[in-house]
């Protein structure tokens, strides 16, 4: 497993994406983004690379919708 320092907590990840923590929780539940659980406290943790991939998907979708 990666070092825990390589992960963002939900509030940090939400800030990174520009959404609320509740929105991010909903996206996890809808399987739009992957969260792992902290082994000790069971908090959601997010890899920055997964968040970057989500941002890229949103950017691509936005570009496609503007072309129509």
TrEMBL record:
Source species, domain of life: Bacteria
Record protein name field: Helix-turn-helix domain protein
InterPro entries: DNA-bd_dom_put_sf (IPR009061), HTH_17 (IPR041657), SinI_DNA-bd (IPR010093)
Segments traversing the membrane: none
Stretches of the chain forming a coiled coil according to its record: none
One Gene Ontology MF term: DNA binding
Database matches in Pfam families: HTH_17
